[in-house]
Amino acid sequence: MKVEVSIGISNRHIHLTKETYELLFTEELTKKADLNQIGQFAANQTVNVKTPKGTLENVRIVGPFRPYNQLEIAKSDARKLGIEPPVRRSGEVNGAAKVIIETSKDSLEIDSCIIANRHVHMNPKKAQELGLINKDIVLLRLEGEKSGTLELEVTVTDNGYFEVHLDTDDANAFLLDKGSKGTLII
């Protein structure tokens, strides 16, 4: 089966617990823009991420708060920071790379930096329609000047908006832009 799917290009971002946020900020977390994943938003607030070898400034917080801290970066960001974060599913931060996150208020070392695996979001109804379950592997075919095929992991959540998430390195490798589409091969 082949199904057209939109592609979301995921820039570096961070998810924080309420407790971590309150250590780093005095103001409430505020929404800059809604994201396609229902209930999630890009916040106005950002943090700087530091290691002894480099800094990433103005890394956007994605809300709402989560039960864990998680920094998602691309391999090119990891090189700038001089770290080797593992490629993981969202929420799997055991053994993740350590970084320092800072604001004008405070700083904190966290061991929650990962490179997010390539994945396709969907809700249970869409998964059933496609005959898929959470953690299945599907293929994504990309056409264009630098066409190719990638493996993706299926992420089924109640609020899942049907969309592929690739980091900026993957998107750049295939010359993708915002609004690009691909074909899922199931």
Explained architecture:
Helix content is 15%, strand content 47%. The chain is built from 4 helices and 14 strands. The chain is globular, with a radius of gyration of 17 Å. It has helices at residues 18-24, 75-81, 124-130, 168-173; strands at residues 2-10, 13-15, 31-34, 41-51, 54-63, 70-72, 87-88, 97-102, 107-116, 119-122, 137-142, 148-156, 163-167, 181-185. The chain has 2 domains: 2-7 and 118-185, Beta Barrel (Barwin-like endoglucanases); 12-116, no CATH class. By secondary structure, it is mainly beta. The mean pLDDT is 97. The protein starts with a strand and ends with a strand. The strands form 2 sheets. Strands 1-13-10-12-11-14 form a 6-stranded mixed beta barrel. Strands 2-5-4-8-9-6 form a 6-stranded mixed beta barrel.
Radius of gyration: 17 Å
Number of helices: 4
Helix content: 10-25%
Number of domains: 2
Structural class: mainly beta
Mean pLDDT level: 97
Walk across the major sheet and give the strand order.
Answer: 1-13-10-12-11-14
Shape: globular
Count of DSSP E strands?
14
User: Oligomerization state of this entry?
Assistant: single chain
User: Major beta sheet, specifics?
Assistant: 6 strands, mixed, barrel
Measured between the Cα atoms of the first and last residue, the distance is 5 Å
**Low-pLDDT ranges:** none
Q: What portion of the residues fall into strands of 2 or more residues?
A: over 45%
Order of helices and strands: EEHEEEEHEEEEHEEEHE
